[in-house]
Amino acid sequence: MLESAVYAIDIKGLVKRYKGRVNPTLNSLSLRVERGSLFGLVAPNGAGKTTTIEIMCGLKGFDSGDVKISGLSVKDSLSAIKNIIGFVPQDIALFPSLTGRENLRVIGGIYGIRGVELKLRIDELLAQFGLTNSADKLISEYSGGMKRRINIIAGLIHRPQIIILDEPTVGVDAQSRNLILEELVKINRGGTTVMFISHYLEEAESICDRVALMDGGRVVLEGNPRELAEQHRDCKNLEALYFKLTGKQMRDTYE
Predict the structure, then answer these.
(1) Which residue range(s) make up the domain with 116?
(2) For the chain, how many structural domains are there in total?
(3) Is pLDDT above 70 for 2?
(4) Which residues contact 112 (CB under 8 A, 6 or more apart)?
(5) In this structure, what CATH number is given to the domain that contains residue 174?
(6) Does residue 62 form part of some domain?
(7) Where are the beta strands (DSSP E) in the chain?
């Protein structure tokens, strides 16, 4: 087996420059996510997190480096990669004029899921995320937290091996936030690799078995949150540790 196939995500020396910017958005970023892990990629807004995952999902090109998903090159095997990953964008990617259930039928159909199989999968995920009673309401009538949960279900509907979530708790109430975090842990324990991208360090600290802290388009520290806390006892939490390393603060309030 190729070494890179051991990893769900294997990024080496990734560089991405945008026209008109002096510094690269991604500056030789290297990152490995082991299969079956719940991995947190954490940095303030504007640090390159979203660019990184858009590249992983084939939504954006890059200047140099290498990106492999389950041993498959993003450059050469994108169609195969799309079948094994689920991507939950920060923006709500739903049709507001359709109901929650109708949205999921459309998205399931895009993945080639049909009939009874699709119905059962939709019912299973709606129950899992506490949306069974709201399934036939228009998305335009959903609260922010409900939209976030349907957005996540859309990324899970085809049973991906890897789920990548960009800021999945932004703009939600405390109840929805807690439910989302709890379900991500359960999904991971069921065997799915979860990559959790956020600027909320306390969330990553609470659910992830490994975190990578980004600054200036590269990883500045990586490890198990509890082990990092043991190694840096002068810092009361990862927030303080990040400030010690970079001189920058994460946003510590929910939108």
Answers:
(1) 36-57+79-246
(2) 1
(3) no
(4) none
(5) 3.40.50.300
(6) no
(7) 7-16, 26-34, 38-42, 64-69, 72-73, 85-88, 162-166, 193-198, 210-215, 218-223
